Structure formats: C-alpha cells, structure tokens
Amino acid sequence: MTELLSRFDSDQLLGVMIALPAVVGGLLCAIIAIIAGNWKAIRHAETSAALKQDMLNRGMSADEIRTVIEAGSKVSSKDLRRQLA
C-alpha cells in the first residue's frame, strides 16, 4: 500500500483524497435512494393487499372495495376514463 501511495506526489495524493470520498459518497447516496424507493413501493403494496384482504374477510363486495380504495386516491377511475375519452 505504501508503495502505491509513494508513486503520487503531494498534489496528486491530495486530489485522490478529495475525489475518492466524493465519488464513494455519491454512489452511496444513489444506492440508498434506490433501496429506499423500492422499500417504499413494497410496503405500499403490502399495506394495500392487507387492506383488501381485511375488507374481503369482512364480506365486502368488489364494488365496495373499489369505492374505498378510490376514496383514498386523488383521481377516481371514472374521472380517469372521462379524461381519456
């Protein structure tokens, strides 16, 4: 390791000491963002499935379940159909 570092002069070594943590930090931030985004999507799917299963266990019909799910969204499927038509 010391042989590798001795090949650099002080300016090059300073540049490596500045650039390396910056690159590693940027990559680490990107990896964490990807993992967090996927984790959020998985948790959303899990809670949505649990809610639907609970409503099915309570004996709700498919139309009632759709009404409850759409009530939590900003745009209902009927509004989407109207916008697309």
Explain this structure:
The chain is an all-alpha fold and 85 residues long. It has one domain. Helix content is 84%, strand content 0%. It is built from four helices and no strands. The protein has helices at 2-6, 10-57, 62-71, 77-84. The longest helix is centred in the middle third of the chain and has 48 residues, at 10-57. It is elongated and about 75 Å long. The N and C termini lie far apart (67 Å).
In short:
The protein is mainly α.
Which features would summarize this protein structure in a list?
85 residues; 0% strand
Distance between the termini: 67 Å
User: What about the largest sheet?
Assistant: none
**Average pLDDT value?**
86
Q: What is the overall shape? A: elongated
The arrangement of helices and strands along the chain is HHHH
Number of helices: 4
**Helical proportion, percent range:** over 70%
Structural class: mainly alpha
How many structural domains in the coordinates? 1
How are the SSEs ordered, and which strands pair?
Elements: H1 2-6, H2 10-57, H3 62-71, H4 77-84
